[in-house]
Write a structure and sequence with these properties.
With 449 residues, this protein is α/β, with parallel strands linked by helices. The chain has four domains: 5-87, GMP Synthetase, Chain A, domain 3, CATH 3.30.300.180; 106-276, P-loop containing nucleotide triphosphate hydrolases (Rossmann fold, 3-Layer(aba) Sandwich); 281-353, Helicase, Ruva Protein, domain 3; 358-448, Chromosomal Replication Initiator Protein Dnaa, Chain: A, CATH 1.10.1750. Helix content is 57%, strand content 10%. It contains 19 helices and eight strands. The protein has helices at residues 5-29, 49-70, 93-105, 130-141, 160-174, 185-197, 201-209, 226-241, 262-268, 281-295, 301-310, 315-332, 338-344, 346-353, 358-368, 383-399, 404-410, 416-432, 434-448, and strands spanning 33-38, 41-46, 76-81, 150-154, 180-184, 213-217, 245-250, 272-276. The protein has a five-stranded parallel β-sheet, sandwiched between helices. The chain has a three-stranded mixed β-sheet with strand order 1-2-3. Helix 16 (383-399) packs across helix 18 (416-432). The protein is globular. The termini are far apart.
C-alpha cells in the first residue's frame, strides 16, 4: 500500500497535538492545510500572514523534523499564505541565504555585515512588538516605498537590530540587485569624519545617496554632533526626494531624542514611527521555547516559566541566561533543573529582583506621604502634593533606567526639565535636612526590598 502525503500529514498532526497540547494545536497548528510538495519541500498553507509568521517561528523546525521522519525525501517545509502568489514553491532558507550572501559581496565596504540568525523567521512576534514587526515586514516586501522613513524605537535588547537585519536579508533575497546599506550611526559618523580628513566628501555623498535602501541603527549616537547631523540631514532628504527607502532605529522616539536638531526630529517623524514595548511574560516564554529548540536542549517547563517570570529586562539577557544554564548543564554533565538554574544565575536574578517600576515608586511614595497616587500625575502644585511628587521623580531617576522624558511622561506628561529640577531640589534638601534625607533613604530601602 502506497504511503501518501495526506496519510503522512495525518500522522504528523497527531504527533503535534500530543506534543504541544490541545490549546496550542487548536490555535496554531490545526489551521495548517497540506497544499502539495515540490522537490524536497512540502507546502502547507495558513489563512493569515500573522499566523504564518508565528507558525514559522514557533513550530517551523519541528515541522521539518517530523516530515523528515515520515518521508526521507522531504528536507524543507514551506508555510505559505492561502490564495496568494506565495502558494508557489518558495526557495529554501539555505539557498536564499547563499543568494543574499552573493548580493552582499557586491556591496561597498560601508555596509556592516548582517547576522544570519536575524531573520523574520527567527523573530518571535507578540503584542509588544507586533506593530514594529508588521511595519518591518511591509517595508521589506513592498515594491514601492510604503512610508518613509520607517522609524523603530525601543529599549536595549528588545529586537530593533534583529528587525533591521531581517529587513535587509529579505530585500536582498527578493531582489539581489537592490543596493541595501546597513550600518550604525557611529560608523556613519566615522565614515563622514574620514571623508573630511581626506577631502573626499563628494565620494562620500555619492556613496550614500546612490543606495536604494539606507538603514541606520542607533541614530541617537549622532545627537549633539552637529556636523554629522547636518550631513545626515542632507543625505536623508536626498534619498527621500528620490523615493528611496530610509529605515532608522533609536532608543527613543524622534521627539525625545535629546541633542537632535528640531528639523531632524521633524524629518524622522515623517513616516511611520513604531515602538517596541518591553516584553510580556507570554512573549518571553515563547522566545525561550524557540531558543531551547534551536539549542536542541531539554529544558523543563518549570525552568522556562521561572526564567520568563524573573528576567524581564530584555530579550538579550533572557537568551544569555538560557545559554548559560545549558552550557553549565553540558559541562558538568547534569540535566537542567530549577535548583541548578537558581545557582548558576544568582547574579542575574539578584539584579532583576532589585528592579522597580515607576508605578511602584509612585504608589509607595503616595502611601508614605498619605496622598492619593493620582496626585502624582495631577496638575496640582500645592506643597503637600508637589514635594512627594518631586521625591517620586528623584527615586525614579535613581532606581530605574528610564530616561528623563520617559519619567516625565509617567508624571502627567511633564517635561524632562521638570524632572531635572525635581532631582536637583531633592538632592539639595537631602544635603541640608537630615530628617528628610532619612525619609528618602527609608523609601529607597523599602523599594529595593
Amino acid at each position: 500500500m502506497v504511503d501518501t502525503l495526506p496519510a503522512q500529514w495525518a500522522r504528523i498532526r497527531s504527533r503535534l497535538r500530543a506534543e504541544y497540547g490541545e490549546a496550542a494545536y487548536r490555535s496554531w497548528l490545526k489551521p495548517l492545510t497540506l497544499s502539495g510538495a515540490s522537490g524536497e519541500a512540502v507546502q502547507l498553507t495558513v489563512p493569515t500572514r500573522f499566523m504564518r509568521d508565528w507558525v514559522e517561528a514557533q513550530y517551523g523546525d519541528r515541522l521539518v523534523s517530523l516530515w523528515a521522519s515520515e518521508n526521507a525525501a522531504i528536507k524543507n517545509v514551506d508555510i505559505l499564505l492561502e490564495g496568494s502568489a506565495a502558494a508557489q514553491v518558495v526557495e529554501s532558507q539555505t539557498a536564499s541565504m547563499q543568494k543574499s550572501a552573493v548580493a552582499e559581496s557586491r556591496q561597498d565596504d560601508i555596509s556592516a555585515p548582517l547576522d544570519p540568525r536575524f531573520t523574520f523567521d527567527n523573530f518571535i512576534v507578540g503584542k509588544p512588538n507586533e506593530l514594529a514587526f508588521a511595519a518591518a515586514r511591509r517595508v521589506a516586501e513592498a515594491e514601492t516605498v510604503p512610508f518613509n522613513p520607517l522609524f523603530l524605537y525601543g529599549g536595549v535588547g528588545l529586537g530593533k537590530t534583529h528587525l533591521m537585519h531581517a529587513i535587509a536579508w529579505h530585500i536582498r533575497k527578493r531582489n539581489p540587485d537592490r543596493r541595501v546599506v546597513y550600518l550604525s550611526a557611529e560608523k556613519f559618523m566615522y565614515q563622514f569624519i574620514r571623508a573630511l580628513r581626506y577631502k573626499d566628501t563628494v565620494a562620500f555623498k555619492e556613496q550614500f545617496r546612490s543606495v536604494d535602501v539606507l538603514m541606520i541603527d542607533d541614530v541617537q549616537f549622532i545627537a549633539g554632533k552637529d556636523n554629522t547631523q547636518e550631513e545626515f540631514f542632507h543625505t536623508f532628504n536626498a534619498l527621500v526626494d528620490q523615493n528611496h527607502q530610509v529605515i532608522i532605529s533609536a532608543d527613543k522616539s524622534p521627539n525625545d531624542l535629546e541633542g537632535m536638531e528640531d528639523r531632524m526630529k521633524s524629518r524622522l517623524g515623517w513616516g511611520l514611527v513604531a515602538d517596541i514595548h518591553p516584553t510580556t511574560y507570554e512573549l518571553r516564554l515563547g522566545i525561550l521555547q524557540v531558543k531551547a529548540e534551536q539549542l536542541e536542549s531539554e529544558i523543563p517547563p518549570k525552568v522556562m516559566e521561572f526564567l520568563a517570570h524573573k528576567i524581564t529586562s530584555n530579550v538579550r539577557e533572557l537568551e544569555g541566561a538560557l545559554n548559560r544554564i545549558v552550557a553549565y548543564a553540558n559541562l558538568v554533565g547534569r540535566p537542567v533543573s530549577l535548583e541548578g538554574t537558581q545557582e548558576v544565575l544568582h547574579d542575574i536574578l539578584r539584579a532583576n529582583d532589585r528592579r522597580v517600576t515607576i508605578e511602584e515608586i509612585q504608589k509607595r511614595v503616595a502611601e508614605h506621604y498619605n496622598i492619593r497616587q493620582s496626585e502624582m500625575y495631577s496638575s496640582r502644585r500645592a506643597r503637600a502634593v508637589a514635594r512627594p511628587r518631586q521625591v517620586a521623580m528623584y527615586l525614579s531617576k535613581q532606581l530605574t533606567s528610564r530616561s528623563l522624558p520617559e519619567i516625565g511622561r509617567k508624571f502627567g506628561g511633564r517635561d524632562h526639565t521638570t524632572v531635572m529640577h525635581a532631582v536637583r531640589k531633592i538632592e539639595e534638601l537631602r544635603a541640608t535636612d537630615n530628617s528628610f534625607a532619612e525619609d528618602i533613604e527609608l523609601l529607597r530601602r523599602m523599594l529595593e526590598g
